[in-house]
Amino acid sequence: MNTLAAVGATLRKVCGTFTGATGLLIVALVLACAVFAPWIATHNPNALDVMNRFSPPSGAHWLGTDHLGRDLFSRMVHGSSVAMVTAMSAIALALCLGTALGILAGYLPPRSERFVLIVFDVISSFPSVVLALAVVAVFGPSLAIVIVIVAVTLIPHFGRVARSQVLTLRSAPFLEAERILGASWPRMVWHHVLPNILGPLVILASMDIPVVISIEAGLSFLGLGVRPPQASWGTLIQDGYQYLSQTWVPVAVASSALAVATLGFTLFGEALRDAVDPRIGREHA
Asked: Are 41 and 77 within 8 A, CB to CB?
């Protein structure tokens, strides 16, 4: 109950600002499209109708059709599902692994801790696109590979934050008291350390979501992400770009969806950060 009350209070703070309310509204809209895509989409996103290719917006096709006569509105809506599945899966995987490694590094001896930090530095030295090129050359393009690649590149973000929080927290009096009373290390981490460091990590995760959405779209645009005919904002931009001389609508539709989604999650992440950290909120006031 206390957790629900805290979440409600935080959301009220987020909605207390124009940017926060706007970001939350966009996030809710994108999530609704992703979850209810089969019911919101007016057509099968992969249904071909070559006789009506490049049709302008109409009552039958709200945003028109692409070069194969596929409904752009349906493909845009289903593209939000791909973006959200990729973002949520990659963030969840990176958050779990990065937090575990960060907590472990905070309690390891200095030599072992340096080894973990070196691993973080090595991972950070590989840009997502370069790493994707290498992996796709071996395994071929797929959404699962995109999720794994993005998650791996984000692990150091969460790991470093978790480690810094643990270093600040591990000498706290209440942890010393638990240690004196004979509490085991797993119990202290699970019941005391993790709940106290989770806040900054959740904020970081919310601010990384637009980054993941952009990476997925970029990789799909390059042909390294989802496979045709599956709809993705990146593949929609790529398909539209090839026929840009005939119509600009597909590129505009996919680019607008990508821009609005990344803007909404960015505004929401910043408002959430300001709501959770009063010091940052005062600095921005």
From this structure: yes
